[in-house]
């Protein structure tokens, strides 16, 4: 499903570990530079890939296995299984991962579609099946391969690649990011670039075969201010070119009214219905400021703020903070994000004039005004302690996240509540 396309760009480089305040590693639900809002683009940020664990030179491979489930009030459920492996060879490290998502959705996008609301659509190689109506299912597979080089002088380079496949969507991406320490390793310069090629089709209309090419970049600087404080300033950019709309969303014209049902949405006073039409280029820019402050040994506070603007007129503000606690036998993190967004220039809850009066039109709620709140709790507990110094240990990882988004003026879905929970095992050194 096009609405479920996971953004594959992420650059996560930090200041020198020895100089930073003590804190546990970032969780799987942390923000990605490619997204304006935590969880705003459906559920793809909530289900962002867990970082592959690092393996010191000479040690056996490290690994993570994680299972999770997402559900929201827009009748969408996702089951996820994720595995990662990492192995170090001197200054080099290789990593690989595989993610499988099983998606079932009877969301507003599905129920408001003139075609999808009439049948159950199973997106598989065998085609369509018609039963009671108003539901889509799909299975998504994503494989990742990475290689990294890190020198003791504070220099690091990482190469990444990913391949994703659904019944109506496929993508391949590659990227490079790195960091370089200067000024006695109190300052880190960082940056990265990723390109992604996307192929979009439709299980409803076999004539739709479109492409979308995305380039994303991130550059920044991190600075250790005191033994207890470090800051990072980063610029994120992204350019999408090609088919950015969804082949399943439709726009109704006229001063219509709607009756919302559990499986279908009935519309009245509609003068025309067309597939949505969006510009085929979108340039986004964002500035992110982060501060890490050590409250005590093993306890860190991580406030952050992000502002963004794009060529479609969407502006957003994200502000939040995490409290992180690290102890020899457990790690704990609790965080909150607030998100505020304006609407795209061409977005309207109702296009009351004839379709010929509009150059672009969309029924994507994510392009309208919204206010979001996200809370998240992560806990990692050591199950098996290492038998020798430098040996391996096994951890149990638990994560719970809750989100609430209000879509101001969007008649079909005024608000959405979401929950995500996951559990996993990891082996680290």
Overview of this structure, please?
- By secondary structure, the protein is mostly beta strands.
- It is 1% helix and 57% strand.
- A 16-stranded antiparallel barrel has the order 1-2-3-5-6-7-8-9-10-15-16-17-18-19-20-21. It has a two-stranded antiparallel sheet with strand order 11-14. A two-stranded antiparallel ribbon has the order 12-13.
- β7 and β8 form a beta hairpin.
- It starts with 61 loop residues before the first strand and ends with a strand.
- Mean pLDDT is 83; it is low at 1-57 and 119-133.
Gist?
This protein is mainly β. 1% of the residues lie in helices and 57% in strands. The chain has one domain (2-428): Porin (Beta Barrel).
Measured as a percent range, the helix fraction is under 10%
* Poorly predicted segments: 1-57, 119-133
Main sheet characteristics: 16 strands, antiparallel, barrel
Number of helices: 1
Number of DSSP-assigned strands: 21
| CATH class term | Mainly Beta
CA(first)-CA(last) distance: 39 Å
Q: Give the spatial strand order of the biggest sheet.
A: 1-2-3-5-6-7-8-9-10-15-16-17-18-19-20-21
Q: Indicate the overall shape.
A: globular
Count of distinct structural domains: 1
The average pLDDT score comes to: 83
CATH topology: Porin
Beta-strand percentage? Answer: over 45%
The whole-angstrom Rg is 22 Å
Q: Which secondary-structure class do the elements indicate?
A: mainly beta
CATH architecture: Beta Barrel
Order of helices and strands: EEEHEEEEEEEEEEEEEEEEEE
Layout of SSEs?
Blueprint: E1 62-72, E2 76-89, E3 92-105, H1 108-111, E4 120-122, E5 135-151, E6 155-165, E7 169-182, E8 187-201, E9 209-226, E10 229-242, E11 250-253, E12 257-260, E13 265-268, E14 272-275, E15 281-296, E16 299-310, E17 315-327, E18 330-341, E19 370-384, E20 393-406, E21 415-428
Parallel strand pairs: 4-5
Antiparallel strand pairs: 1-2, 1-21, 2-3, 3-5, 5-6, 6-7, 7-8, 8-9, 9-10, 10-15, 11-14, 12-13, 15-16, 16-17, 17-18, 18-19, 19-20, 20-21
């Amino acid at each position: 499903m096009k609405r479920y396309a996971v953004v594959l760009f992420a650059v996560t480089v930090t200041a020198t570990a020895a100089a930073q305040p003590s804190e546990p590693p970032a969780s799987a639900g942390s923000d990605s530079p490619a997204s304006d809002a935590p969880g705003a683009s459906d559920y793809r940020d909530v289900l962002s890939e867990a970082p592959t664990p690092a393996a010191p030179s000479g040690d056996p491979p490290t690994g993570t296995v994680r299972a999770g489930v997402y559900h929201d009030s827009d009748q969408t459920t996702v089951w996820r299984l994720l595995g990662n492996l990492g192995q170090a060879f001197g200054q080099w490290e290789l990593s690989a991962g595989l993610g499988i998502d099983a998606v079932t959705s009877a969301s507003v996008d599905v129920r408001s579609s003139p075609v999808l609301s009439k049948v159950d659509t199973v997106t598989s190689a065998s085609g369509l099946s018609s039963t009671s109506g108003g539901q889509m299912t799909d299975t998504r597979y994503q494989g990742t391969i990475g290689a990294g080089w890190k020198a003791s002088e504070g220099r690091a380079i990482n190469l990444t690649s990913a391949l994703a496949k659904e019944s109506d969507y496929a993508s391949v991406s590659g990227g490079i990011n790195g960091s370089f320490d200067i000024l006695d390793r109190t300052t880190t310069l960082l940056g990265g670039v990723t390109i992604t090629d996307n192929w979009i089709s439709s299980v409803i209309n076999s004539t739709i075969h479109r492409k979308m090419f995305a380039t994303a970049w991130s550059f920044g600087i991190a600075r250790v201010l005191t033994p207890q404080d470090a800051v990072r300033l980063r610029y994120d950019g992204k350019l999408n070119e090609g088919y950015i709309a969804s082949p399943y969303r439709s726009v109704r014209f006229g001063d219509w009214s709607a009756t919302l049902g559990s499986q279908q949405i009935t519309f009245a006073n509609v003068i025309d219905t067309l597939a949505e039409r969006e510009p085929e280029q979108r340039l986004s820019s964002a500035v992110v400021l982060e501060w890490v402050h050590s409250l005590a040994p093993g306890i860190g506070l991580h406030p952050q703020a992000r502002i963004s603007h794009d060529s479609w007129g969407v502006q957003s503000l994200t502000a939040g903070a995490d409290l992180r606690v690290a102890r020899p036998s457990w790690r704990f993190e609790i965080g909150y994000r607030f998100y505020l967004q304006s609407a795209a220039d061409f977005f309207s809850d109702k296009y009351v004039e004839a379709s010929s009066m509009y150059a672009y039109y969309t029924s994507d709620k994510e392009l309208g005004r919204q206010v979001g709140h996200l809370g998240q709790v992560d806990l990692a507990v050591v199950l098996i302690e290492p038998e020798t110094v430098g040996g391996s240990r096994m951890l149990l990882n638990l994560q719970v996240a809750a989100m609430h988004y209000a879509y101001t003026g969007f008649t079909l879905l005024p608000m959405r509540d979401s929950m995500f929970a996951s559990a996993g095992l990891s082996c680290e050194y």
